[in-house]
Amino acid sequence: MAISSIFLLSLFSLIYVIPIEATHHVYQTLETLSSHHSSKSNHQPYRTAYHFQPLKNWINDPNGPMRYGGFYHLFYQYNPKGAVWGNIVWAHSVSKDLVNWTPLDHAIHPSQPSDIKGCWSGSATILPGGKPAILYTGIDPNNHQVQNIAIPKNMSDPLLREWKKSPKNPLMEPTIANKINSSSFRDPTTSWLGKDGFWRVLIGSKIDTKGMAILYKSKNFVDWVEAKHPLHSAEGTGMWECPDFYPVLDKNLLRTGVDTSRNGDDDVRHVLKVSLDDTKHDHYLIGSYDVVKDVFVPENGFEDNGFVLRYDYGKYYASKTFFDDGKNRRILLGWVNESSSVADDVKKGWSGIHTIPREIWLHESGKQLVQWPVKEIENLRMNPVNWPTKVIKGGERISITGVDSVQADVEISFEISDLGKVESLRKWIDPQLLCSQKGAGVKGGVGPFGLLVFASQGLKEYTAVFFRIFKYQDKNLVLMCSDQSRSSLNKDNDMTSYGTFVDVDPLHEKLSLRTLIDHSVVESFGGEGRACVTARVYPTLAIHDKAMLYAFNNGTSAVKITSLSAWSMKKAKIN
Q1: Are the CB atoms for 101 and 114 separated by under 8 Å?
Q2: Please, which pLDDT band fits residue 422 given cuts at 50, 70 and 90?
Q3: Residues 140, 294, 409, 483: which is the catalytic one?
Q4: What pLDDT score was predicted for residue 252?
Q5: Is 140 a catalytic residue?
Q6: How far is it, in rounded angstroms, from Cα 317 to Cα 324?
Q7: What backbone torsions phi and psi does residue 352 show, to the nearest 5 degrees?
Q8: How far is it, in rounded angstroms, from Cα 398 to Cα 401?
Q9: Burial of residue 57 (number of CB atoms within 10 Å: 0-12, 13-18, 19+)
Q10: What are phi and psi for residue 494, nearest 5 degrees?
Q11: Which residues form the signal peptide (predicted)?
Q12: What is the pLDDT of residues 322-351, one digit of tens each?
């Protein structure tokens, strides 16, 4: 039998059942692994306590997340040799709850000609019989980007500690015929199975400035043929990295997720996410997938207007979703790089974190996605603080005491009764620019009001997450900002302010804000998850027990705090 046939047979062989005694052995192994890894240093004020990051060195894209053998598996781009990008391998950690993670040996590292210069991003697909397969980008000796496959060596191992690569690698490579630049052909998606029996996968690419998701098809998951046209493309968008394509349920009040291969049904719409290399933002389009023509038709595309939806309007990139079949939900993971200088990253010995895993679903309006931290993160909450209804006057600041200000989860809701003093916008302006012009220190009519986090004595340092309301063409616009302009006295940091408009009606809806605070990350969710903004900050004064937390209102109109609940967060066991 040819060696490629042996590989195919191993892909589609009989279902493996993981024995109970093997699972018991796994728990013993995990306990041993955990005991051998030292705890994080308390001398590093910026190292997170409950966000995912390795013990040291560089991390970027989340890769191949999946649920297998009773564990969540997360692979990620990792440099084992330092705190800057390079020497990239697929590191691997496992979890029972998406909160506490145990590191395993690296899953994929350069070992074949097709990946000898790097094992870049990719995705996992669960094949018939519950067998996982990974498609990933390798860098060959000519620095060409090509697509490879790896499968587990031992399907009965729920930890999937060892992976083997196909001798047929690379399975997909750029050719002169398809006019694809060999340096613009990467990041295969999770594959989906069509009703015609063919697997499909997308590869991110570009031709000149036209970004595109190239479509490939395969009957056996090894021999792939390029389709006649991309699934979708858009002029002027540049390279599409880390594409993601998945179905969402319409009119989904239960937040239910669906399998990636669900298509062609009336109650399903599709999402195409692309990470734009030119802007380093993750944009997404909602639309319909024509399963006959193999094209994606967005309701609003990149060419239709200048404002295309994003997962997160702060520092957030190279995200990846997976369907959690255990809880029937779709989970979103994303990379957050540092805002500190490279020199500071090298000094502290690490760079990069991942956001808290988020559940993601289609909003009942059908116009956008909604994101919310997974329920499991609430198991870290302790020492709750709850406020009764309070009116916070213009210019007032109220201290939130009783919680760990550098390691907290805060939920606060505001109610506006009077919009008489709302500011007017004469022309449309980019919300991020508006946040930088109208920061927390600029007094307004209705707002800014929200939270001051990582605040120092005398407010020499603070990060502000707030709302501010404007009137534009007879419509009330709710601006949500994360203002880092005074986050640190260290001016080597990137202190860009971020923001977006939140699709809420301030007259008829409460303005809710949830902020996860974790030493150097401020991860905020506005409008019950309709807008997300993540920031990295590195205060020099507001660290450890010197950091303070406030609710504030710097507008002229009073606002009502209808509820506030805050918790200190326990430290998760991460790597």
Answers
A1: no
A2: very high
A3: 140
A4: 80
A5: yes
A6: 21
A7: 100, 145
A8: 9
A9: buried
A10: -80, 115
A11: 1-22
A12: 999 999 999 999 999 999 999 999 999 999
